[in-house]
Amino acid sequence: MKLYVKKRIPVPGKQWFKVGDHKEVYDYLIMVEHQGNEYYCSQCGKPFNEHGWVATLEGGHIVCPGDWIMTGVKGEHWPVKPDIFEETYEEYHENDWLA
Question: Range of 52's domain?
Answer without folding.
Answer: 13-89
